[in-house]
Amino acid sequence: MMHSKMMDLLYDLLPFHAWKAVLLGGHIENCPACSQRLASREEARRLLVQAGDVGDLDGLWPAVSERMDKARPALTPDAGVARISEVSRKSKFLNAGWRWAAAGAGFLAAAFMVVWLVQYFGPPAVRGGSGMAAGELEQVQIHYVRIDNEPAQTFIFKPHDSNVVIVWAGKNL
Amino acid sequence: MNSTRENELIAACLRGEWEEFRKIVDIYKAQVMALAMNVLGNREDAEDACQDTFIQSYRNLGRFDSQKSFKNWIFTILYRRCLDQLKKRRRFERAFHKAKHELPCEIRAEMSNPGRRKALSREMLNRLSPKERIVVTLWANEGFTAAEISEVLHCSASTARVYLFNARKKIKSLLEKNHDAFKNDGSFI
Question: Which in A169, B23, B148, B161 has the greatest CB count within 10 A?
């Protein structure tokens, strides 16, 4: 009795099913004293409902049959196969379509990015137009501008991709 | 393993002769119902679980591997349906603030012989977990080994042995506690 209680305690202390199973196989199931603390098949059966005890089950088939009828059109093997292949064809098509669309969009985005980078960071010849050389730009100078007989602010601006030089003057506020 | 007759019936169903499915239901309905009643402890829920089990097996018959046991397959479906039923019941009980001490569902005395209530007692339902109930039913009623039980539960054989051991220990302790309540013929009062 004491021995079985010790085994029970040890069994309860083990944290994993695998370890418990080792203890079961290694000792408990083979030890007569420990086995006595377990219900036999016959004892368990006394508390369980047996197949012979379930009584009348005549209502089961009509209920199952009714639900089968509702599901049947889609479940005959041919219909099922046809439906599955149609669905898989559609989903394949959709998957392929999405893949191509995503690939195309990615390609366009990459191409746009390359063009933009070349335009802004590439050599002047690639940037388009002959452009004004740095030396030429330095030659554009405004020494003095007056507006309403008062000294004005002056600005010179040359866009990267153009030969145009914009010069403007503003009143000092 | 499946009998030749079972394999023929399954093959006939797969050919579209769905009327043959009735014979499959007839073969297994009592065993499936008994298992459901032992797990759920209630005839109405057990009938629902049985219906769902047969419908689900009907729907998925094409996926059944004929090299495996049809009985184990159908018991696996039933086991999952029973767990679903128990989850639903727990949600329902929680919603209505049912007391834990109440029997989850009264075992109805609708057996063939109401005098001998060979059903799980209220105490046993409360003591054994659903997994322990199904494991002990498969072991005691169907004569399944731990390896076969593990196929139904989709767990390792060692886990099935642990569930079985726990269930047997609890049943023994229950029987000892209620020793006086048992008559000589084994009926539970």
Answer: B161
The answer as to whether B149 is a domain residue is yes
Residue in A28, A29, A46 closest to B118 by CB: A46
Domain ranges in chain A?
A: 2-51, 60-117, 134-171
The pLDDT tens digits of the residues spanning A31-52 come to: 888 888 889 999 888 888 888 8
Crossing angle of the two packed helices A17-26 and A2-13, in degrees rounded to 10: 150
Distance set, CA B49 to CA A7, A60, B36, B45, B139 (Å): 38, 11, 7, 6, 20
Total domains present in chain B? 1
CA pair distance B84, B45, nearest whole angstrom: 11
Amino acid at position B119, single letter:
A
- Picking from A37, A47, A64, the nearest residue to B120 by CB comes out as A47
Q: What is the pTM of this model?
A: 0.61
DSSP conformation class of A156: E
- Which pLDDT score, from 0 to 100, does residue B81 have? 93
Is B141 in contact with A48 (CB distance < 8 Å)? yes
> What whole-number distance in Å separates Cα of residue A8 and Cα of residue A36?
13
The answer to whether residue B144 scores a pLDDT higher than 90 is yes
Which residues in A lie closer than 8 A to residue B57 (C-beta atoms)?
A: none
Q: How far is CA B143 from CA A48, A79, A150, in A?
A: 13, 39, 111
For B34-91, the pLDDT digits (tens) are 999 999 988 889 999 999 999 999 888 888 888 889 999 999 999 999 999 998 888 8
| Chain A residue with minimum CA distance to B108 | A54
Q: Identify whether B95 is part of a domain.
A: yes
- Binary contact (B161, A24; C-beta < 8 A): yes
B110 in any annotated domain? yes
- Looking at the domain assignment, is residue B144 inside a domain? yes
ipTM of the complex: 0.76
CATH number of the domain residue B8 falls in = 1.20.140.160
Question: CA–CA distance from A24 to each of A19, A28, A36 (Å)?
Answer: 9, 5, 14
